[in-house]
């Protein structure tokens, strides 16, 4: 148990904070009720199911799909705004620090002493997931298809709990979703964040902002010894020193904490030009 907790980095505190902030209504699990108050019109760029009994905010993917399938909804303006502000400011920071389902996968991965490398081709699943399940199919069949057929977070947060109060909803689709959740759950032990790295449309969109965000990871090549310790702790399993603006990066900042030569830093592009903070520290 002690070894388990020593593997946890400082972003774990942020993850716990946001998980509780987004899901404080724990007592609703025992009532089988879903909060539908004022806060449900808002969301953050993380995967947190609207139908989770404890949740007080909406899911951006679910809200966006409902808007596409029924144009009387206007959540998309809020979604575009929050994605834009967060993305331009910090890129995919929320993926690494605030996503409850990311936390779920991270905790499972700590149970293993060895991680396997995921085939790179699987990382492209997120593109058809975004194009077809999040955008095109909701437009065509008027149904939130990503939430209905793929999202394991919804199954974990809502499906497993609400079924006790609505057992009549059991059917092929339910067991299909349970199978997907089981797949991502067990694969999280052997692979780092399998859902995030293969199928998450939120991570895909937020990752695009990594190239233009105000806060950027910068690598001082004169200090970097390419020891690959950064990759060992990286949830995205990438070589950050090869491309600090990598769209797969979730900005968890674990690489900064473990770098033995302090070659990696988080830089505010509005305050410093590239390399200025290194010059000041020398």
TrEMBL record:
<feature type="transmembrane region" description="Helical">
    <location>
        <begin position="172"/>
        <end position="191"/>
    </location>
</feature>
<keyword id="KW-0004">4Fe-4S</keyword>
<keyword id="KW-1133">Transmembrane helix</keyword>
<feature type="domain" description="4Fe-4S ferredoxin-type">
    <location>
        <begin position="238"/>
        <end position="269"/>
    </location>
</feature>
<dbReference type="GO" id="GO:0005886">
    <property type="term" value="C:plasma membrane"/>
</dbReference>
<feature type="transmembrane region" description="Helical">
    <location>
        <begin position="75"/>
        <end position="103"/>
    </location>
</feature>
<feature type="transmembrane region" description="Helical">
    <location>
        <begin position="12"/>
        <end position="30"/>
    </location>
</feature>
<dbReference type="GO" id="GO:0051539">
    <property type="term" value="F:4 iron, 4 sulfur cluster binding"/>
</dbReference>
<dbReference type="GO" id="GO:0046872">
    <property type="term" value="F:metal ion binding"/>
</dbReference>
<dbReference type="InterPro" id="IPR017900">
    <property type="entry name" value="4Fe4S_Fe_S_CS"/>
</dbReference>
<protein>
    <submittedName>
        <fullName>4Fe-4S binding protein</fullName>
    </submittedName>
</protein>
<feature type="domain" description="4Fe-4S ferredoxin-type">
    <location>
        <begin position="215"/>
        <end position="237"/>
    </location>
</feature>
<keyword id="KW-0472">Membrane</keyword>
<keyword id="KW-0408">Iron</keyword>
<feature type="transmembrane region" description="Helical">
    <location>
        <begin position="42"/>
        <end position="63"/>
    </location>
</feature>
<dbReference type="Pfam" id="PF00037">
    <property type="entry name" value="Fer4"/>
</dbReference>
<keyword id="KW-0249">Electron transport</keyword>
<keyword id="KW-0479">Metal-binding</keyword>
<dbReference type="InterPro" id="IPR051684">
    <property type="entry name" value="Electron_Trans/Redox"/>
</dbReference>
<dbReference type="Pfam" id="PF12801">
    <property type="entry name" value="Fer4_5"/>
</dbReference>
<keyword id="KW-0411">Iron-sulfur</keyword>
<keyword id="KW-0812">Transmembrane</keyword>
<feature type="transmembrane region" description="Helical">
    <location>
        <begin position="124"/>
        <end position="141"/>
    </location>
</feature>
<dbReference type="InterPro" id="IPR017896">
    <property type="entry name" value="4Fe4S_Fe-S-bd"/>
</dbReference>
<keyword id="KW-0813">Transport</keyword>
